[in-house]
Amino acid sequence: MNTQVRATRTPKPVIDPSRPLDTLLEAEPVGEGKRGPALTIFLAGAECPYTCVFCDLWKYTTDGPTPEGMIPSQIEQGIQSLGPEVDPAMLRIKLYNASNFFESRAVPASDDAAIIELLAPYPAVTVENHPRLTNERCLSFGAKLDGRLEVAMGLETIAPHTLARLNKRTTLEDFDRAAESLIDHDIDVRAFVLLSPPFQAAAEAVEWSVRSVEHAFDGGARLVAINPVRAGNGFMDDLQAAGEWTPPSLAQVESALSGALHLERGIVVADLWEIERFRSCPECDDVRISNLRAMNDTQEPATRPSCARCDS
Ligand code: SF4
Ligand SMILES: [Zn+2]
Asked: What is the separation of C-alpha 155 from the centre of its chain, rounded to a whole number of angstroms?
């Protein structure tokens, strides 16, 4: 499957591992109706070895392994981008490396000590990692960090036949086991859940997404992010052209987030990165996007607008 997925790729830009791809300072919900500052540093480094069929993160990775010293340097640069108005004692740092943080090709283990030192002033740190890489290195990193570590893992979907076909090479049991081990080691869990993955009927997408969010909370997740699957990685475009996959509509994103918030199990956000790509209706898209932003911020389900065009 890896070869089949990679064969559909278009050329990617050259990525420079000496500087972060980007930084984003935002206010994230932290529970009880409050929000707190979070700085995401998008790290440049080696590609993930898993090649999930829906993933387009390979576009933001280098061809070879990440050279030693580059990740600490990028983190330092990302932190330097902060203005003096941000209080470090309130800040969550999210290190997203378009791969898995505890895979040594992506983040050399020899850099861990320098990274831990750079992160010492911050109360909370999030990294992303594959459930099957919940290894000794991950647990020891969490133990050595001054602040709380949170590991973000892709649960993706609990639909068994769909998950098996995503080439993620993981199972629900892997996710559950990893979450349990992290929580046992006093490490928080953030989960990623897909909306409208391939090999799933469009009419069932919202329900599977909400049920997957519920499963993540059952496993102890502190926060769940719903990721609407987008075209653009080659493989998904081919599926779409063949009529075998339809990107989710904004109305479905809205329903999934609203349904997941109605569970009242914990913090749920929809990933609104590139949300403009999901526009399909000139009548209601603006309202839906502002509803999604409001739901992310307030954690209150919004009333969905009726739309003569979409509802007909
Ligand atoms: S494990 Fe994550 S980064 Fe790797 S291919 Fe899958 S979705 Fe992409
Ligand atoms: Zn509409």
From this structure: 10
Q: Is the dihedral of CA 80, 27, 98, 218 positive or negative?
A: positive
- In ligand 1, the atom with minimum distance to the C-alpha of 156 is 7
- Amino acid 61: pLDDT: 97
With CA atoms as reference, report the closest residue to 194 among 175, 179, 178, 220. 175
pLDDT digits (tens, 9 = 90+) for 51-62: 999 999 999 999
Alpha-carbon separation of residue 294 from 176, 250, 287, 297 (angstroms): 31, 14, 10, 5
pLDDT of residue 131: 98
Q: Which of 173, 172, 175 is nearest to 158 (CA)?
A: 172
Among the bound ligands, the one closest to the CA of 58: 1
- State which ligand 1 atom lies nearest to the alpha carbon of 55: 8
> Closest residue (by CA) to atom 6 of ligand 1?
52
pTM over 0.90: yes
C-beta of residue 221 within 8 angstroms of C-beta of residue 266: yes
